Amino acid sequence: MTAPGMTAPAAGSPEPGAHDPAMRHEQAARAALIEACRTLNARGVNQGKAGNASLRWDRGARAGLLVTPSALPYERMRPDDIVWLSLDTVAGATPDDERPAVIDADGQRPSSEWRIHRDLYAALPAAAAVVHAHPPHATALACLPEIQAGGIPAFHYMVAMAGGADIRCAGYATFGTQALSDQVLAALAGRRACLMAHHGIVAWGAGLAAALALAEEVETLSRMYHLARQLGRPAVLPDDEMARVLAKFADYRPGEA
After folding, report:
1. d(CA 109, CA 119)
2. Residue 205: beta bridge partners?
3. CA atoms within 13 A on the CB side of 179
4. Potential cystine with 256: which of 17, 78, 82, 210 (Cβ 3.0-4.6 Å)?
5. Least confident of 77-81, 87-91, 133-137, 154-158
């Protein structure tokens, strides 16, 4: 699909503005987003119509993103249902109106959490894909006051995959609001993933596969931490060890950070 007023790229040439090296054309990117969401559900990281995913996708000089639509089951979703938004998209009539001022040419409405995706791409140039999901273990932990205050501690060295010595939990705000996006961005300062109080998780990566893998990793760690807490109080790795792990992870899986 080509933006209105743009000339379609020549066969075999990249679509304008692709940031994920695995995505060469917009139609392929749209299909990949749908497949990613179906994969999240199949792997138990998400359920039903919950969650959403996006890819940074510029159209010529217009910086933007492709994001899944609102309230449409993933099994019924088709590439033309995916919504393109400009990064300068603003809210509608009120600050918390979930309808953006710009909706795609086919009238599709983006996910209610479009602000989170827009704001992450605007704030994090390295982010090429964003996944938001409602995994059961991570979401259960995100309902606990202790986790909301201090996140998941370094009970396992793989906590560093989220970018720090713990996995933070963003404060609660009503879904689909700017307040929620602000909370998520604060929790993701210097990080690649976070929990969301009473809600779910967000993960970003240098490509869709990386964001998807990180979301699954956060849920796996959440399940481990839940199990460990049933047996007792998990020991926590010291800060100096986590600093060593983070330094080693800087060269781990290049291109997927």
Report:
1. 18
2. 129
3. 10
4. 210
5. 87-91
pTM comes to 0.86
- Tell the burial category of 71 from Cβ atoms under 10 Å away from its Cβ (0-12, 13-18, 19+): exposed
Residue 128 backbone zone (phi > 0: left; psi -120 to 50: alpha; other: beta): alpha
DSSP-derived pairing of the beta strands 169-170 and 193-196: parallel
Active site residues: 113
Q: What percent of the chain has pLDDT over 90?
A: 74
Strand partners, 203: 131, 193
Alpha-carbon distance of 240 to 121, in angstroms, equals 31
Copy the structure tokens of residue 147: 């986790």
Q: Domain 26-249, what fold?
A: L-fuculose-1-phosphate Aldolase (3.40.225)
Q: What is the average pLDDT score of the chain?
A: 87
- Find the helix packing angle between 26-42 and 208-231, rounded to 10°: 10
pLDDT tens digits, residue range 99-138? 554 455 566 789 999 999 999 999 999 999 999 999 999 9
